[in-house]
Amino acid sequence: MPVATSTLDALCVNTIRGLSMDGVQAANSGHPGLPMGAAPMAYSLWTRHLRHNPKDPHWFNRDRFILSAGHGSMLLYSLLHLTGYDLPLDELKKFRQWGSKTPGHPENLLTPGVEMATGPLGQGFATSVGYAIAEAHLAAIFNKPGHDVIDHYTYGICSDGDMMEGVTSEAASLAGHLGLGKLIFLYDSNGITIDGSTDITFTEDIEMRFKAYGWHVQKIDGMDIDAVDRALTEAEKIKDKPSFIIARTIIGYGSPHREGTPEVHGKALGADELKLAKEALGIPLEPTFYEPEDAVSHFREAVSNGAKWQEEWNAKLAAYTQDYPAEAKLLKASIAGDWGTAWIDALPTFTDKLATRKSAEAVMDAIMPHLPTFIGGSADLWESNMTHLKDAKQFQPESHEGRNLAFGIREHAMVAAVNGITRHGGLRAFGSTFLIFSDYCRPSLRLAALMECPSIIVFTHDSIGLGEDGPTHQSIEQLTSLRVIPNMNVLRPADGNEASACWKIAVESTETPCLFALSRQALPALTPDTVKNHPAEKGGYVLRPASKAKPDCVLVATGSEVQHAVAAKDTLEAEGISTQVVSMPSTFLYDKQSAAYKESVLPKGVPTVSIEAGATLGWYKYAQAFVGIDHFGASAPTEVVMKEFGFTPENVVAVAKKLLGR
Amino acid sequence: MPVATSTLDALCVNTIRGLSMDGVQAANSGHPGLPMGAAPMAYSLWTRHLRHNPKDPHWFNRDRFILSAGHGSMLLYSLLHLTGYDLPLDELKKFRQWGSKTPGHPENLLTPGVEMATGPLGQGFATSVGYAIAEAHLAAIFNKPGHDVIDHYTYGICSDGDMMEGVTSEAASLAGHLGLGKLIFLYDSNGITIDGSTDITFTEDIEMRFKAYGWHVQKIDGMDIDAVDRALTEAEKIKDKPSFIIARTIIGYGSPHREGTPEVHGKALGADELKLAKEALGIPLEPTFYEPEDAVSHFREAVSNGAKWQEEWNAKLAAYTQDYPAEAKLLKASIAGDWGTAWIDALPTFTDKLATRKSAEAVMDAIMPHLPTFIGGSADLWESNMTHLKDAKQFQPESHEGRNLAFGIREHAMVAAVNGITRHGGLRAFGSTFLIFSDYCRPSLRLAALMECPSIIVFTHDSIGLGEDGPTHQSIEQLTSLRVIPNMNVLRPADGNEASACWKIAVESTETPCLFALSRQALPALTPDTVKNHPAEKGGYVLRPASKAKPDCVLVATGSEVQHAVAAKDTLEAEGISTQVVSMPSTFLYDKQSAAYKESVLPKGVPTVSIEAGATLGWYKYAQAFVGIDHFGASAPTEVVMKEFGFTPENVVAVAKKLLGR
Questions:
Q1: Nearest residue on chain A to B617, alpha-carbon basis
Q2: Contacts across the A-B interface (CB distance below 8 Å)
Q3: Which residues contact B614 (CB under 8 A, 6 or more apart)?
Q4: Which residues on chain B are in Cβ contact (under 8 Å) with A406?
Q5: Mean pLDDT score, A586-611
Q6: A74, B160, B180, B393: which could join A23 in a potential S-S bond, CB 3.0 to 4.6 Å?
Q7: For residues A419 and A116, is the Cβ–Cβ distance under 8 A?
Q8: For residues B494 and B502, is the Cβ–Cβ distance under 8 A?
Q9: CB-nearest partner of A166 from B169, B450, B618
Q10: Mutate which of A211, A241, A267, A380 to test chain B, going by most B C-beta atoms within 10 A?
Q11: Do A214 and B204 touch (CB under 8 A)?
């Protein structure tokens, strides 16, 4: 079938456009505009720069590609299909349909070759910074003279929407500071968003802005394949700055009535305009989802190239293994996510009264030397979060081998970066800030859960118990609002032993993010010191059995309030009320237990009181009466606030007795 | 008592420092560093520029002052006290104590003269953009030749932390685009954050960055009172750009061992260092909280100046009232928050099957012409949110009279701006985006609730019902996670009539933010058309009574799922199960009803099933069985997704019968 384009490049680019238009048209839903405008730059990147292996999407040293503008998913699906990933044409025909591998926005769990879920704007960009941190850190700790076993780029395509989101600014500032030279973003500057021209709201000088962040910036014609190629080559040469390539493009290129307009952004073209667009681009009208052989075979060179690249890397790794057997062993284990067992043996136990942020610090001090491929830090609250790794350097431009990450007051970019490091593989990552600021990073927390990415975030100062800083800093609804995210494990230990057990849970998690909620204030040691096999692993457990086989009453508490449940039990028992105390550090894990186990912990029909210094809404699932707080807090010393708001053994006793009608 | 400072200015500045140090020391908690370093610039602003009236903190045309760096609260409390606000010295002595007017971070509800709650970084800065929008809009719609009845500045002080937060970047880009010439920020650039020098993570060129946003930028010595004065004077002359004054300061100035170090940021100086600092600054050691008479009387000139400024304005308003009686009437009513009743008469009723985003659009079309001092817009989703005001212009640099705000893809800055416009007074404001993106703006939503600021946010596409866009865009946990915020009214109407009633609730709200959750998909009209007096005002109500006096079963549903409850009732009744259907558009309002009313809606002991296309966790409070979704969604057409995940009458029937053991 004759094609009216004169060159192979144009044929390939138009093949992407054709598949993308047809996919959106078949679904009558989706975003044709971005794939049509960004096809040239994506083609240039994917055929001339990206080193990947379609037959092994998990090849460790592959270049990472992140489509931050996830709404342009048909661009990515077209590329994956054409270059030979396990994504048959039939899947492209089922774009946005139930059970397909081609959802509306890219999802790493569904589609081979999709590095991460994107769509919520800014997330792809910010997470990419994590990928680049991971590459830089692994290279710094593993590479040796003559042995560059870790050596790849992180490429991305981002959009106007990404550029407006705050998380992008945080991440860009951080990446510029850290000098992440192997991070390269193409900015699809098409001047159009859903509501019209970007002129209606987005008139900043983005070139100047990125220069201000310390990036290497180029401005090019994004419709010119060779210009893109040259810019990428230039960017790859810059070793000490991330690169930002502002590529001017035409959204919906080829659609005679819609190119360059908002109409082509997020709607199918419709049969008539699709026909005109195909005619304009020289794409045959039939068959739909047209793949000219010449284009396919050119794209598919990725398969042989990929095999070759991976083989070369395998040889490198073999030579490295020869010369540096210990390092190679650690690298391979880390890639496999095998953290050994030495860290488990090192888990400390506790007997002293300590804030859980302090006991968790002691846990980290004990286990982190045995987990050398863990990296993390704080959003400018190291002293408060107590997550600074001892005897370890900071990850700075001149010291990418450092394990301590100073994220700055950028909670959102922090969690996105932690996600990126974790998704990269070879490393596990953690971040930390106050629990209240979980609100600032919620979109990235949710994405971790959705991607089944086991990010670890240490939230401290987890309630009104933080005291004087007052209601702007006191969590009320945060515990509940985090627990309600699917696949999110919120861990609120009651003491040091539970903190130790919770760290074990977090390190061993493979597909669930773990969020610590730790106290600022000191808490007594109350739970078993069997930290390697602690009942906390079941999420909730009987901490103090009732005096009778069938309790009259159950008190279920978490974190800093477990002590009040234990004290209240004594009073209640003294009054003849047989009371079972349950510690519930993780409702997520508890909910997964068997019905029989749950019946032993929270027996049906037994009056149950929950005690947690937070909102009560989430506790109706487990209890009938509540010691909680459903209004904002107050600024005053911890003991005063806690007492004024009813977090005392006396009040627990009163609430329990009221529930029992005593 | 002799003071070793040679000038009145220095005496005044050191008085602020002394009060701030003593306040923090008395509490043994707080942040002395910022007040000590920023005292000169604050003094210059407050005594030479700020037009305010300490005896009437609500004087409408006052300059607004926002301390975005809320942790420096003692600076603000010192200024308020010294200039004559109703904040006695005794309150400063009770800094951070239970029941005082001087909480750890500023709270508008507690302290006269505090415009807004600050502390969560970036919020003050971003909210200030809203204040400036409000001033510009009111000036544009009310001022007439010779009558500048609205004419004030919005000043702020921000910190390094503010500058790193993403919301600040969003807001700064928006403010630059909008040309908000009367917004002036002093940036307390002290080079220090909690974890150390800003060099460890924050090395961007902030001057260049703000120029890129389109701001007028100056760089000065922030310790030089006259330099600050000159910079402010210069900034006030710039009419078409917001102003950013980078003021280099020394954190903890005067503390011999701690100035310029992180140690002075967030801890009391301690008795010894405090003594040395006072000696260095020439502040007498006794009494503590020392207020030299000369300083006080100089600061207190604000009282007579304020009275004079307000009198002048009263005269202006009188002349305006004379010449423009209709406009003056509207202005006064809007300042009083009196929106009249014409809009209530205009509330439409509905009989057709319509998406609630569409019926809500019809409501807005009907009422907004009667609410001329309402202003708002969308975060680049006007076409989807359907919140563009008909026959109204956009608020753009050349048209500040426009009522339609193009916020850009900046959800967080949008809500902050809505808060600022609303807190400014004289206007009510709304924003809109998809419900999933409530995660992006959560810190500002929380702050609205904390400030008792009745912001209105219209969230559409409120569940998996949005279909093809898939799990990254499908809300699951959002409804619950928003409802659990104290003082937050989430409104999820079932049809157009409820949407009409919910808009009435939102407009009439005076101290609670209202969040709409609206469907993308069409919903049948099911509820009464008595929209002026709709039972939805009680939050939850019996939509379909059971066939028997005492129902066998209650189905409680919200929004798009109410239709399934109604359909399921018919099947259940046909099988002899007397079923009451409850529509629950607002759990917030329902929870406020009397026990007797609640017993009539959700009678105790009657098996109850909740039906909502969202997480079940929040429904255990009201029901024992659940039709909900506790995992992420999927990309497919709406009807398919809804059916696959069990949102059908058949499944509601099945769940109800299982609960009843039938």
A1: A618
A2: 329
A3: B463, B475, B476, B477, B478, B479, B480, B628, B629
A4: 195-196, 200-201
A5: 98
A6: A74
A7: yes
A8: no
A9: B169
A10: A380
A11: yes
Looking at residue B194, what is its pLDDT?
86
Residue A141's pLDDT band, with cuts at 50, 70 and 90, is very high
Residue A508 has pLDDT above 90, yes or no: yes
Instruction: Give the best residue of B91, B380, B479, B485 to mutate against chain A (max A CB count within 10 A).
Output: B380
pLDDT at position B5 over 60? no
Which residues of A are designated catalytic?
Answer: 411
B160: closest CA among B75, B275, B33, B255? B33
Instruction: Tell me which H or E stretch contains A64.
Output: strand A64-67
Contacts of A169 in chain B (CB under 8 A): 166, 169-170
In this prediction, residue A194 carries a pLDDT of 86
Q: What is the pLDDT of residues B22-72, one digit of tens each?
A: 999 999 999 999 999 999 999 999 999 999 999 999 999 999 999 999 999
Q: Do B195 and A378 touch (CB under 8 A)?
A: yes
Are the beta carbons of B471 and A107 separated by less than 8 Å? yes
Q: Give per-residue pLDDT as tens, A375-416.
A: 999 999 999 999 999 999 999 999 999 999 999 999 999 999
What residue has token string 């607004």?
B64
pLDDT, average across residues B338-359: 98
Interface-testing mutation among A125, A195, A405, with chain B (most B C-beta atoms within 10 A)? A195
Average pLDDT (B395-409) is 98
Whether the pLDDT of residue B4 is over 50: the answer is: no
Place of tokens 């960004």: A38
Residues 6+ apart with CB under 8 A from A45: A65, A155, A157, A186, A228, A232
Contact A200 B396 (CB under 8 A): yes
Nearest-Cα distance to chain A for B297, in Å, is: 31
Q: How far apart are the first and last CA of chain B?
A: 88
C-beta atoms of A472 and B119 within 8 A: yes
Put simply, the answer to whether A617 touches B469 (Cβ < 8 Å) is: no
Residues of A in contact with B169 (CB under 8 A): 166, 169-170
Structure tokens at A582: 């349950």
pLDDT digits (tens, 9 = 90+) for B251-267: 999 999 999 999 999 99
Contacts of A213 in chain B (CB under 8 A): 204, 209
Looking at CA atoms only, how far is residue A323 from chain B in angstroms? Answer: 35
Q: Report how far residue A518's alpha carbon sits from residue A520's, in angstroms, rounded to the nearest whole number.
A: 7
| Residue B337 distance to chain A (closest CA, Å) | 25
Q: Which residue has the tokens 């700075």?
A: A396
pLDDT score for B193: 87
How many angstroms separate the Cα of B652 from the Cα of each of B160, B553, B567, B638, B655? 53, 12, 9, 18, 5
Residue B1 has pLDDT above 70, yes or no: no
Preceding omega of A287 cis (within 30 degrees of 0):
yes
8 Å CB contact of A96 and B484 = no
Question: What per-residue confidence (pLDDT) applies to A629?
Answer: 98
How confident is the model at residue A193, as a pLDDT? Answer: 87
Rounded Cα gap, residues B460 and B395, in angstroms = 23
pTM: 0.98
Give the pLDDT of residue B3.
40
Q: Which chain A residues touch B207 with a CB distance below 8 Å?
A: 212
Q: What share of chain A is helix, strand, coil (3-state, %, to 5)?
A: 45, 15, 40
Query: Residues A287-293: contacts with CB within 8 Å, 24+ apart?
Result: A288/A22, A288/A25, A288/A26, A289/A18, A289/A19, A289/A22, A289/A23, A289/A89, A289/A92, A289/A93, A290/A1, A290/A15, A290/A18, A290/A19, A290/A22, A291/A15, A291/A19, A291/A82, A291/A89, A292/A1, A292/A3, A292/A11, A292/A15
CB contact under 8 A, A636 and B97: yes
